[in-house]
């Protein structure tokens, strides 16, 4: 098999040139990082779980008319996605106080917010992905006002979908982050949900117990990250409910 050309390697994924023009192969690694990569570990099976869960969420969004870059899953660790120009922002949607919001504003973790709060961070690891306002985004030309209107609409639609989906399996969607990309069809540009949606990029708490089922398990040394992600996958039907907690056997 011909050696593929690597385009980019991040903390959790590797991007390769796709088989067709305008496509990219996204490979999910087993690496886990926290605190801007100050804490690192390799967790067996994490990449497989995130690939399958991101496929599940992106397919669901495509099916309800929320455009994403996802095309199809190729194998247990790779998926084919549309090439897009990533807007240099992380879009964070918060339903409950947690993490940096709790620290910044002194609000107890788990407090329900009066409405979903959408925040923007400038994507730059060296700077620690700082929080920015729409004023910064406009001034530095990272996105137009029309882009921002579309981004807000996409983010809230993703939130509606994900909140309902998770609530249905006994999980509270505390917050999540997404990335948005520009796809060009000739002269026409549209925005799509890009990157991934997985327990790496969401805070997920059990509705009854408050048990964390997301990357905070790794950040805060709360147990097995694979077990937490496997629990999410099982509840959503991505994994069979029977069987032990050894290496996950995933449904093809």
TrEMBL record:
CDD domains assigned to the protein according to its UniProt record, in alphabetical order: SAICAR_synt_PurC
One Gene Ontology CC term in the entry: cytosol
Reaction it catalyzes: 5-amino-1-(5-phospho-D-ribosyl)imidazole-4-carboxylate + L-aspartate + ATP = (2S)-2-[5-amino-1-(5-phospho-beta-D-ribosyl)imidazole-4-carboxamido]succinate + ADP + phosphate + 2 H(+)
Superkingdom to which the source organism belongs: Bacteria
InterPro entries cross-referenced by the UniProt entry: SAICAR_synt/ADE2_N, SAICAR_synt_PurC, SAICAR_synth, SAICAR_synthetase, SAICAR_synthetase_CS
Residues annotated as domain SAICAR synthetase/ADE2 N-terminal: 6-235
Pathway annotation: Purine metabolism; IMP biosynthesis via de novo pathway; 5-amino-1-(5-phospho-D-ribosyl)imidazole-4-carboxamide from 5-amino-1-(5-phospho-D-ribosyl)imidazole-4-carboxylate: step 1/2
Keywords assigned: ATP-binding, Ligase, Nucleotide-binding, Purine biosynthesis
Keyword Metal-binding attached: no
PROSITE patterns: SAICAR_SYNTHETASE_1, SAICAR_SYNTHETASE_2
EC number: 6.3.2.6
Molecular function GO labels: ATP binding; phosphoribosylaminoimidazolesuccinocarboxamide synthase activity
One Pfam family hit: SAICAR_synt
UniProt record, GO biological process: 'de novo' IMP biosynthetic process; cobalamin biosynthetic process
Family statement: Belongs to the SAICAR synthetase family.
Classification via NCBIfam families: purC
PANTHER family on file: MULTIFUNCTIONAL PROTEIN ADE2, SI:DKEY-6E2.2
UniProt protein name: Phosphoribosylaminoimidazole-succinocarboxamide synthase
């Amino acid at each position: 098999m011909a050696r593929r050309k690597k385009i980019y390697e991040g903390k959790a994924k590797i991007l390769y040139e796709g088989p067709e023009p305008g496509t990219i192969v996204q490979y999910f690694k087993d690496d886990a990082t926290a605190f801007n990569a100050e804490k690192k570990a390799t967790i067996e099976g994490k990449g497989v779980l995130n690939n399958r869960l991101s496929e599940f969420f992106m397919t669901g969004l495509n099916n309800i008319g929320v455009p994403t870059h996802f095309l199809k899953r190729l194998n247990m660790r790779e998926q084919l996605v549309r090439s897009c120009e990533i807007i240099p922002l992380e879009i964070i949607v918060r339903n409950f106080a947690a993490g940096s919001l709790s620290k910044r504003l002194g609000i107890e973790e788990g407090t329900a917010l009066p409405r979903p709060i959408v925040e923007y961070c400038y994507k730059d690891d060296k700077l620690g992905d700082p929080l920015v306002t729409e004023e910064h985004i406009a001034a530095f030309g990272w996105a137009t006002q029309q882009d921002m209107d579309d981004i807000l609409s996409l983010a809230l639609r993703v939130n509606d979908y994900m909140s309902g989906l998770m609530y249905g399996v006994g999980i509270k969607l505390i917050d999540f982050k997404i990335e948005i990309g520009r796809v060009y069809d000739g002269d026409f540009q549209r925005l799509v949900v890009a990157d991934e949606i997985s327990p790496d990029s969401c805070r997920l708490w059990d509705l009854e117990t408050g048990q964390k089922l997301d990357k905070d398990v790794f950040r805060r040394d709360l147990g097995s990250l694979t077990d937490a992600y496997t629990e999410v996958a099982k509840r959503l039907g991505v994994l069979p409910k029977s069987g032990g907690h050894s290496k996950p056997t995933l449904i093809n």
